[in-house]
């Protein structure tokens, strides 16, 4: 029997030895905890070895990304003489992609808000789309789908350094 205190609510969790090194949800608060006895090469070890916060412990922000409009749409910005800048700035004013050590969260909207999140344990596919121009300016679109849904749940446009974002998410995924 393995016992561990929940990282969020400090409730004592008890699971059989077969859960060693696995992630489990706390029945009280729903926080995902890594049970002790993780085998070498587990997701938390990979992230920590890369200099990022470990998968175990409380939730910590790893990255916060805002759309890179200038790099994603350089010709629109130049040819519209700033009007395109204002339109894209206002359209993406409240859009942020948050990556923590436990989940990825897309928050969008300024006046009315929308939030979508996917736990890293449930991520099944991370898509990165970049046109030739996007590759030159190092921006792209990221799509994240999980095991619980049919389609892509999170779609973030004009993301700076999309391959680095994908690698960061992959470090926290169980692979």
Characterization of the model:
The chain is α+β, with helices and mostly antiparallel strands and 175 residues long. It has two domains: 38 residues, no CATH class; 112 residues, Roll (PH-domain like). The chain has six helices and eleven strands. The strands form four sheets. Strands 5-6-7-8 form a four-stranded antiparallel beta sheet, covered by helices on one side. It has a three-stranded antiparallel beta sheet with strand order 9-10-11. Strand 1 and strand 2 form a beta hairpin. Helix 1 crosses helix 6. The longest helix is centred in the C-terminal third of the chain and has 11 residues. It is elongated.
Which SSEs are present, and which pair or pack?
Elements: E1 2-5, E2 12-15, E3 23-25, E4 32-34, H1 43-49, E5 61-65, H2 69-72, H3 74-79, H4 83-91, E6 96-100, E7 103-108, E8 114-119, E9 123-129, H5 132-137, E10 139-146, E11 154-160, H6 162-172
Antiparallel strand pairs: 1-2, 3-4, 5-6, 6-7, 7-8, 9-10, 10-11
Tally of extended strands? 11
Distance between the termini: 25 Å
β-strand percent reads 25-35%
Tell me the number of structural domains: 2
**Average pLDDT score:** 84
Shape: elongated
Just give the CATH class of the largest domain: Mainly Beta
What profile does the largest beta sheet have?
A: 4 strands, antiparallel
Cα-atom radius of gyration: 19 Å
CATH topology of the largest domain: PH-domain like
Helix/strand structural class: alpha+beta
Work out the helicity level: 10-25%
CATH arch. level architecture of the largest domain: Roll
Q: Helical segment tally?
A: 6
Instruction: Give helix and strand order, one letter per element, not per position.
Output: EEEEHEHHHEEEEHEEH
How are strands sequenced across the largest beta sheet? 5-6-7-8
Unreliable residue stretches: none
